Amino acid sequence: MSNASFGRVRIAVPAPEMAGAVIQIRTLIAHPMESGFRADARGQRLPRNIIERFECWLDDTPVFGCDLQPGIAANPFIEFALRAERSGTLHFLWRDQHGNEHREQRNLAVPG
Amino acid sequence: MSHSRRQWLRMSGAAVTLLSIPLPAIATPAALAQAQAQAYGERPIRDGRITLTVPALAENGHSVALAVSVDSPMTERDHVQRIDVWAEKNPLPLIGRFELSPLSGSAAVRTRIRLADSQTLSAVATLSDGTLWRASAQTIVTLAACTDFLI
């Protein structure tokens, strides 16, 4: 994990009002998403350093995935929907191009 | 001596030629068409069912809010499997690829993207029945993310 550039993570999981309600989950992770198309002050190309993959699972069921390219802005923000039918544990995963991973978990509590 | 000097000049000339090969700093609509042909083959892409929202005027090309939604019931039988976002004038035409599932409940995704220039963006959705749908949106970028791109 020594060369990983992951920073602070923010995840917002709104509480579903009832079973079957669709919630919008918002995620943000601090990361430069260096595109590989930029130069430093001396004209040297800055090497690409991006998060390539984001995934969200509810227990062992995949909910959402994303392949990120350099066209995604720094500190990638991703918002997606989830139909909250049952309670469980949401697993979040970010993987950079070097294979470093950052994982988070949040509880999903569905009423009833 | 003059021989080695000539050799050196020839070598340095070759080096300069190598260095001056233009990098693909900005993709072209042709590059986008090629990338989409690779992604979707000969399958027809229809306009409709998708809403792609970007600001008409983006002040900062380094971070532009983008929202995509698809009109879909998101059931096991009928749902959106994938949404690809494309930019015709970025160095790489593909910006991101989003995978959805029946658990998504709603085909609505938001993110923030980089734009190298004022251009037309498009989103292509792959549905579970195999059909492809597209929406496009134009945005004018005041401060392009390409100002510090290598050219």
How would you characterize this protein structure?
The complex is a heterodimer of chains A (112) and B (151). With 112 residues, chain A is an all-beta fold. Helix content of chain A is 0%, strand content 48%. Chain A has a four-stranded antiparallel sheet, with no helix packed on it. In chain A, a hairpin with a 4-residue loop joins strand 6 and strand 7 (101-108). The mean pLDDT of chain A is 94. Classes of the chains: A mainly beta (112), B alpha+beta (151). The interface between A and B is medium-sized, with 32 and 35 residues. Strand 5 of chain A pairs antiparallel with strand 7 of chain B, so a sheet runs across the interface.
In short:
Chain A has 112 residues and is mainly beta. In chain A, 0% of the residues lie in helices and 48% in strands. Chain B has 151 residues and is of the alpha+beta class.
Order of SSEs of chain A: EEEEEEE
Derived from helix and strand composition plus strand pairing, the structural class of chain B reads alpha+beta
**Largest chain-chain contact?**
A-B, 32 and 35 residues
- Please give the radius of gyration of chain A in angstroms: 16 Å
The oligomerization state is heterodimer
Low-confidence residue ranges of chain B: 15-24
Determine the number of helices of chain A (DSSP H or I, runs of at least 4 residues).
0
Mean pLDDT score of chain B: 86
Average pLDDT metric of chain A = 94
Give the fraction of residues assigned to helices of chain A: under 10%
Which parts of chain A are unreliable, with pLDDT below 50 for 5 consecutive residues or more?
Answer: none
Per DSSP, what share of the residues of chain A sits in E-state strands of 2 or more residues?
over 45%
The structure class of chain A reads mainly beta
Instruction: Summarize the biggest pleated sheet of chain B.
Output: 6 strands, mixed
Q: Count helical runs of chain B.
A: 2
Content of β-strand of chain B? 35-45%
What gross morphology of chain A would you assign? elongated
Shape descriptor of chain B:
globular
Biggest sheet of chain A, in brief? 4 strands, antiparallel
Strand arrangement across the biggest beta sheet of chain A: 4-3-6-7
